[in-house]
User: What shape does this take?
Amino acid sequence: MKSSYAYYPGCLASLSQKELDTSTRAIAEKLGMALVDIPGFTCCGAGDVHEARPEYYLHLNARILGQAEQLGQDTLMTICNVCTLNLRQANKKLQADPDLLERVNRNLKEVGAASYSGGVEVRHLLWEIAEGEGYERLKEIAQRPLEGVKIAPFYGCQILRPSRLLGFEDPDRPQSLERIIEACGAEPVDYPSKIKCCGFPIVLARSEVALGELIQPLAEAKEAGADAMVTPCPLCHLSLDAWQGKASREADMEFNLPIFHLAQLVGAAAGLSYDELQFKRHVVRTYPATDKIYQGA
Amino acid sequence: MVRHDVVVVGAGLAGMRAAIEASRYGVDVGVVSKLHPTRSHSGAAEGGINAALGNAGEDSPEKHTFFTVKGSDYLGDQDAIAVMCAEGPGDIYELEHMGAIFSRMDDGRIAQRPFGAGGAPRTCYAADITGHVLLHVLYEQLVKSGVTVYEEWFALDLVTDGERCVGLTAWDLVRGGVQGVEANAVILATGGLGRMYRGTTNAYACTGDGMSMAWRAGVPLKDMEFMQFHPTTLKANGVLITEGCRGEGGYLRNAEGDRFMFNYAPNAGELASRDVVSRAEQTEIDEGRGVDGTVLLDLTHLGAKRINERLHGSRELAMDYAGVDPIEEPIPVRPGAHYHMGGIDTDVWGHTIMPGLYAAGECACVSVHGANRLGGNSLLETVVFGRRAGAAAAQDVRRNGMGGVFSPSAVRVTERAITRMLDVNEGERPYVLRQELADVMYDNAGIFRTAEKLETCKAQVTELRERYARGLVVQDKGRTFNSDLIQAIELGSMLQMADCLVTGAIARTESRGAHSRLDYPDRDDENWLRHTLAWYGDGEVELDYKPVTITEYEPAVRTY
Amino acid sequence: MHVTLKIQRYNPETEEQSLETYSVEMNDEATLLDTLDAVKDQVDGSLSYRKSCRMAVCGSCGMRMNGAAVLACKTPMKPIVESGEVPVVSPMGNLPVIKDLVVDMAPFWAKFRAVKPYLEEDENPPVKEWRVQQEELDRVMTEALCIQCGCCVSECNSMESDPDFLGPAALAKAARFVYDVRDRGGKSRLELYNGPHGVWDCTRCYFCNQRCPKGVHPRDAIAKVGAAIYQAGMHSDPGARHAKVFVKSTHKTGYLLETNLVPETVGAVNAIKDIPFALKLARAGKVPNPLKPHSANKLDEVRKLHTLIDAQEKAARAEATAGPRRPPEEAQAKESE
Assistant: This one.
């Protein structure tokens, strides 16, 4: 864990998933992480711009990294899987190829944007609190253990794969979320599809395919007795939460599975209130899981 | 029962090239292969394919011909070699037009690098995965051609009407059961037989099935005693490290760090011909200058960039199977059984002595490699003579139809033989014999041979054939994907082919190319400038000889 | 070393299924394939699996170990033995099982054939080779490494949900031709990959990249094909329209225009059908005000950047579509014809 980060919330946490941004800022304060806002950051382009316009994607991300560097920060913190992979992939590419970096910087200069020297590391919040000093701090602030709450970890894809670009943990047997769930005093629930896809990237363009993917983790987690699910990705969250009703109808199963953002889980254990963590901004009602948490207190 | 005008057995480079060519003549073509085409062992070829394009230096088909003749230790038929070398460039351009990703020179032409004993930078390549690239290009073309492919059909026996080949029987591996495959022309392109040796670069599939089918049908096999040992194979599992490593400037060193090759080939050094390099390595190892049974292939001076660009695949293989990163340290290598120069006796159009039966590629012996093949010539042989065999078969069929009578009893005979194999419940398991054969061959019919060793080998092979005939236990009694059965049949082929190899080797009392007799260290042109023919004589090997075709180049002393 | 492993057995003739444990003595260099060979030879000859080259180039021995697709011949056993684990070996996923570890590859090859897996050649090729720069070939070299083993397909999350998805192997093959300067397929080739079950089916789970034993990075190849389709102006598929919203968002407001995403991806009519769903989201505060879009600072930088890159890409495309050159002597002869 660092004492300060260039903070990159990405689009969703700035828009529909505002509760993620709010919760992240709240727990960062408790953890002792200074989050330095990046003025003028934009969307990382997600998988879409990355796919459709790879050159533009590269420049967008170089611009963000350059802005972080301009703030004097050597680490940029993300709270979204897609942002993490996008920024890390661009970063690796730029760091490995001086000619490319020079060309990109020429373009950035031409439009008046900050250039990038290659000196920033991109890290997801999950990694910062799943080991080392961050994990110790997490255990310290988790003053209200979520006893008896069974939480299913859902990793999402782009924080695990490709491990060549992410590489924090074994992509087939990740343990970071489980460690955090345990540190929060809750009980991690194991199920096979915790490392699989939620279908979000194609939930609009190929809704049937996406729902087919989405049903699997919801059904398995429910079957394993989870009270709630936690994910480090706001896109997985949107899929698992907002599209849960559709998945439910498609599968003809009642899921009613509350989906927590990682920062909300940590915040709840750190004593932050239901309102502070904005649980009411979820589509799937978070009680009875949140009742267990807050009535237990 | 299926029928086609032309049926190709085997779907490596030669087989697919033959099928594509035959289909261009408008005849109905089928391909029978025990593997899916892209699983064929041609894909493991690494270094490249020769043709006198002259892109990287002065070259000509004539020069290519001369160095191939010399490399063959004058046993190659010079008319056949001239055909291959003259037509090679056209075949390379065709492959390029089909989409083969050949590595390039700065001006956009196909790059070429020197290979051992070639006399010019003549080897075109796709990094060090040339075989893979060509195999996939030809499969693409095969798909485009619409030819019917019977994947995972294991060819069992040729069917003749007493005179002509009229098809074959095959075991459908996935569904089980013997299938009759009727054809006006059959082209065998089944590859090599390296699996009879311990320490081979060859895939598990290289078991000499096609050669053995032809032999049993009464077609002679030529120059079977000539087995090439590749100088650079990995110790643990025999995996090939390409000659391209030396073509790119790699060194061979002994335990003392000396580049010993200059003691054996003062001019060519590491780029002498394969038989010379393998013998030199084995001598270093035998005389105590090896490193744990190996010598060292040193690429470290080439640098990471060149290794990654040109020899990426070799680096991966060394890391995966020897635990060595060639950028950092030398690769321990030793000679391993690699390529079989001999095979089904054919003319330059792939015709065998049996009407309706053709052969091309490693299973055939045209002969363009003679006693020793030059690196980069085998891929060339597959496309040139695969094309020619395909054209000849199609033209022959179009010209005279030539349909013989495929007797349905052929299928029943084969079925009964399979049932007999499956009915054995007591006795030895095939793997025991397979391992013994591999050891016997490597120890006694390897790089250095003597009468004593070869006689031992013959005796043991004979004994193994007897044990095989007594019946082995195939434990899998089912019909679906019974690989236990297939492996037992493959073993039978290997035993027969081992017998042909060692019988020919005993008789040949001279040293020529890859056949190196310590008791007869010199080449003997007076008595042995001739091809060995191995005929089927009621299960036994009967030897016969035929002259070598010499046109331009009189046999001369061969030094490098 | 002593190797113990569990193998998922299936006998189609009796329809028996079981998980069997086997132990064999192996040398330290042994791979999973070597171990299976030892089991087949010494313990049970009826065990079926495919193999051939044992050097990771023929693509026969794809299977799963502990649920992850691997090439058996490229998987050393020593680390597993040392970890004390007893691995479970099972057939690849997303393909029907024939027997034991052997799967039916027919659906795999059907998709391969569906992508027009060969170069669309120029009708009038030169006598000699096309003049092609190494850098131009390097664009397809990664995809050309593919050995069609199926490890990517085994793990494809989209294919689990849509079995007709062309999938990572076939689309990587497609990329190998889309980016070959010698290919004359043009838009008609791209059309093959643009429709239902094409590139826009990919859910970006990156399992294919993770599992590929040859470093082909199939997901990246799919993205390359998507880029070619998008940049060819083929925006009819909802997947391409979805991407278009993102591209537009970045230089309109700097942030994703979430409210545009639904109508512009699925069309206004479908969006209206989904109004109850939208209202549910709105109740939770999940629908940002479309009239007052949140906008990034220094947006002019991004807008200029977009324009600049657009121009550069157009120039690069113009150069690429010029295609390979004929040998100078042949080009001259052709001109004088």
The longest strand of chain A covers residues 4-8. Chains A and B do not touch (no CB pair under 8 Å). The radius of gyration of chain A is 19 Å. Residues 54-70 of chain A form the longest helix (17 residues).
